[in-house]
Design brief:
The protein is α/β, with parallel strands linked by helices. The protein is built from 7 helices and 9 strands.
Amino acid sequence: MALYTVPRMIFAHILAKYTKYVSAQGLVLDIGCGLGDLSIFVSEELRLTTVGLDVDVETSILTSNRTKTLPNLEVVLYNGKSFPFKNESFDLAYAHEVIEHVDDDVLFLSEVWRILKKGGLFVLSTPNASKEPLNVALHRDHVRHYTKPQLAAKLRKANLSPIAAYWRYHFLGARIDWILYRLGSELIQTRQIQPTMSYWSHERQSKLTVFVVQAYKYVVKPLISVISIAEFEIKKTRVEAASMVMVCKKQGDLPLI
């Protein structure tokens, strides 16, 4: 369970807007799915057939076990280079905080273009270099950060035409959730998988801990979500933030990169 979830809440809110353009028979790809929170959201709440893609073996196994009861969600391991899918397989793809980790962003975007159907959508989030410049000490597993113009130019070269861009601003909600995260980290036993990813098991927790977590999930988290999304909607295109979300549409010609 991810406790610090406000950026993911905002991304899910944006995804819900654009998945409306995907038919009930359409297919959605979650690139860099991690523990599958967004995959589960798209599969369960938005009711779309979803494929989660990740390069980490342990993470993929954990996510597969976590989602094995969901009939319209599959988790696939890949080599970090070529996506294991046929051309024009997906109606929509998304990558939440992924591209900044990718060594070869040219190849990555070419693969996104290849697996999308013509006119398909690609939604991605990444740090905004204007507000969050790459710091080797703070961002040990990041390769690069982009400014908004740099990211838009890179996407256009891949014939992924930007159609919308948002600043992921959520100051108040994030501060509330961060306080709860710090408190929760003292209470909940977690297992670290990657530097910024951990999970917890119900079997390892006391009944009190499980109750507190469930209260957070069903009471506190929805309240934080309402606060964060309201703040985001007010400032999403007006106040530059440390994180940005860009929505693109696949053009028909081969990528220029």
